Amino acid sequence: MSLLDRDRQFVWHPYTQMKTAPAPLAVVRGQGVYLYTEDGRKLLDGISSWWVNIHGHSHPALNAALAAQASRLEHVMFAGCTHPPAVDLAERLVSILPSDLTRVFYSDNGSTAVEVAVKLAAQYWMNRGWPRRRTFVALHHAYHGDTVGAV
């Protein structure tokens, strides 16, 4: 069974009306700025993912760093736990931020980052004694994320 056939059977894609959507690209690997499809096409990745792929696909230095970290600790839930890479990066980031910014909140995507920023702002005004200060400005026809608060 092809990747596309398996996809149609088991996957529900985001932002997609599954009955009428065209078939997605069946990408099987990436290298540098290119994606390679199951049917052999080489495509320039002009999007580089919606999220954070700015250094190209399968970058040797990044792959080595990922493999080294995964050999020590590939994942740990961050709620109620911590680990050296998270603290090391937070220290480095805080050292270059304005002096009144003293902590880092990690997010795994832009939608969650927007959601957390909205919640932090609301909590800030609640803590200051202004609980009704909860109006947010957003750009019309702009993408802010796919969580409830970001939408």
Q: What level of helicity do the residues show?
A: 25-40%
Principal-axes geometry comes out as extended
What's the CATH H-level superfamily name of the domain at 3-69? Aspartate Aminotransferase, domain 1
β-strand amount = 5-15%
Spell the H/E element sequence: HEEEHHH
Termini, distance in Å?
37 Å
- CATH architectural group of the domain at 3-69: Alpha-Beta Complex
The strand count comes to 3
Helix and strand layout, with pairings?
Blueprint: H1 3-10, E1 27-31, E2 34-37, E3 42-44, H2 60-72, H3 84-96, H4 110-127
Antiparallel strand pairs: 1-2, 2-3
What does this structure look like?
It is built from four helices and three strands; from the N terminus they run H-E-E-E-H-H-H. It starts with a helix and ends in a 24-residue tail after the last helix. The longest helix is centred in the last third of the chain and has 18 residues, at 110-127. With 151 residues, the protein is mainly alpha-helical. Strand 2 and strand 3 (42-44) form a beta hairpin. The chain is extended, with a radius of gyration of 20 Å. The chain has a domain at 3-69: Alpha-Beta Complex (Aspartate Aminotransferase, domain 1), CATH 3.90.1150.
